[in-house]
Amino acid sequence: MTREDAQRRSDELARSVDGLLVDVRTAHHGRLSANGWLLQPLPDLRFSGAAWLVSQAGRKTPPGLILVYSAGALAESVPPLLAGTALPGLVDPFGDVLDSTQSLLGPSDPVAVALVDDPEPSEPGRQALIDALRAGLSPGRAQPALVTAVELAERGPADGKTAAWGQQTADELVRARGGRRGRRACSYRRGG
Amino acid sequence: MAWLGGNHDREAALGEPPADAQAAVGDASVEGESARRGRVATRATAVTLALRAGWDASLTYDARQTASADESPTSPAAALFVGRQELVGSLVNAISQPDRRGTYLVSGYRGAGKTSLVIESARQAISSLEQRGHELLPLVLNVSEVSASLGAAGDASVPPLGIDARRLLIALLRALRNKLDRGQSAGLREDEGGRLRSPPEGQRLAAARAMIDRACDKAEASAWSRRAQEVAELELTGTRRSDRSFGVGDLFRFTSVVTGFGALAVGGAAIVGSASAIAAGACAALGGVAVASFRQSRVITQRVSTRATEQTELLFDNSLQQIEADLKQILGELHKAGMRTMFVLEELDKVDDHDGAQLDAVIRYFKNLFTQAPALFFFLTDKQYFDLVEARMATGRRVRSYAVEQTFFTHRVFVARPPVDDCLDYLQRILPDEAAQSAVAAIRDAADDRSRALDAMDPVERFLRVVLFTSQNHLFDLKNELRRYVRMTSRDSRLEFDDRSFPPRDHGLAVCHFLLEQKIKLYTFSGGRDYANEVVRECLSAALADTDERRLVTELYPSGGELANLRRDDRRFIVEAIDSLLGDLARGRAIELVRSPSDEGSPLIGWRENAVSSFSLSPRLEAHEEALREALQRAVRICEQLAGKGPLPAGPPLIGSVPAMRPRSTRSQRRDSR
């Protein structure tokens, strides 16, 4: 197969997969919202709905709880932005975007839940995303940021029952919301 | 170490054919079926292949007229030009439209076929031009003629070839004069239909010829002036004269005569008759005499004169501007006379002008002439000048301006060396034997294979692959390679090779040819990207060029002017292609990649001993194929988890459109498996 042909087919494939993932993320987002979670998009067009600040309606949620849907270049673009917010004095390449993001993140340690598209355990992209997020969130902070990964499909029930889809993510969000002050158990409203 | 056994060995072998080979050839002539098929029952593994007559003839401008009458692909002229249909079509279209004007930069490596391309295009345009009532007038100048156009005949020194505005002008005019002096287009000959050229066209041609002669004189003179004077004078003169006068002397003479006649009358009357009648007659006689003797004394003179004078003085010079204007006028006259003029400036790459300064000066000077005159101008240069022009244009774009070359050359044509398919077309035409035909077919069939062992190739395929590899797809070099094996007989020419002229240690080059063509095919650029494809071929060929010294891998990457003409992605792809080829060579134990002593980050390439004979292909998926396979696998995983048992009820028809990435088994592998 020629180089050009392979490139063209790869591009077509990537577009198809991305289209599928957008649909899945939208559905996943809807499931979390239905469960009482509030998701506010990070104010940067590059994230294109893939990175969200998370809080829970009626509950006190520390700022800096982030939900990231892993998507290709996002793994590279999120950390620098977050790092820029965490480290005063850095050159702000995005102007007032950083200011608004910083205000959203607040002074506390951010924690992130990454939703991984590819279920392949050996897929290097997963660990790369986690490492990148951790590195991006941690500079200037006392301890490394907490980053946890959940598969987008959540693979939990293998029997095809999709009603519980989103539950594993919600569990991780609850744990993350507890942060380093203690991952206290937290109930959440089950949806759908 | 050397890839080839060397020309010396081969020529020595060919210089004196071995006795057994001669015997084999002799056998072939009487061997019936095997000779017909081009195979010779071997005593020394000799192979003989028939060659078509005129197999190595080159296209010339002289052949264009005769060739137009015979468009048959089997005609000698048609057989010598293969491929390049896209380029030819574009040029034919331009030439065959008499009103089209423009300047074409035709560039490419030497021997790539630039001249043949122009000749073939001109040949194909002739019929269309004739249908439009025009005759093609091709004028070919090589740079030697241009350079020598100002030189003295006895100059013993050989200065470097150069080109400047005056030299070019002189050369253009000389070419015009020579062409028309040869009577090819004298305006008097019959056209193709036997019809005499119409008088107005003939007169125009004659006028153009006179202008050309005058312009040539001007251009060639070191100092030239001509004074023309015209004087027109008109004078009209008319004179009428009459004189009248009356004097006193006349009165006395009158009185004396009257008295004398009176006395005579009286005397007569006394004798003859009546005195009164005599007196009256006398008086009447006196009156008549008086009138007759009256002398006018009045003078009347009338004179009318008209004079008109007009004087014009013209001075002509031989300044460049003047000659340029003359040439433009000449071309205009030729155009009106039904001549389609096309200038071809060949061998510009031979000008000692590495930075393009000379040609640059010329095109700046004549930009208006070249782009506006009713003619086509073709500038044939090598790749270096093309790179230079493209680099200047790229620089111009960066600084938001135009390089002069951007508007001067209305068309820039890059002539890449022909692809292997075109070379195979050529071989197929000149080698009619069945053995050669099947070998060519085998090479074509293996184009998509990923591996082809030497054992799978018959001797003719090996031979053809090796000559193709050695000539690097240059038709010019390919003919030269074939000439090494040509045997002339009293009846025809034949290709002949045996173990001496084509030793087995060279056969491995056939595998190198396969590998090279495979890489070129895998990394080819579509969409008419001839330049990029030429760089791919050049870089990959350079990687296979055997050298005694080790060299850095980075030396093979695109460099110099190529960088300006390649997109960033193109450069990356070409580097990938080179790395892939080197990887194959290293796995096949033809080369070793060692760390550079200077540690410049680029490994050194070192050829192993007996690289050709020991080289064997061990194909792998290319990097882009591996990447696509991984992308496919990821897509499958995602689809399965999300659309299978996952949250989405049904997945999109994602995978079905992408072909399986399993590498094709090669013909030899299939054969082995059978």
Helix percent of chain B reads 40-55%
In terms of per-residue confidence, which ranges of chain A show pLDDT below 50 for 5 or more consecutive residues? 83-106, 180-192
Beta content of chain B comes to 5-15%
Largest sheet of chain B: 5 strands, parallel
Physical arrangement of strands within the biggest beta sheet of chain B = 3-6-7-2-8
Shape of chain B: elongated
Strand segment count of chain B: 13
Radius of gyration of chain A: 17 Å
Number of helices of chain B: 28
Structural class of chain A: alpha/beta
Order of strands across the main sheet of chain A: 1-2-3-4-5
- N-to-C CA distance of chain B: 38 Å
- How many strands, what sense, and barrel or not for the largest sheet of chain A? 5 strands, mixed
> Tally of extended strands of chain A?
5
| Radius of gyration of chain B (Å) | 46 Å
What's the rounded overall pLDDT mean of chain A? 67
Report, as a whole number of angstroms, the end-to-end distance of chain A.
47 Å
Helix content of chain A: 40-55%
The secondary structure category of chain B is alpha/beta
Oligomer: heterodimer
- The average pLDDT score of chain B comes to 75
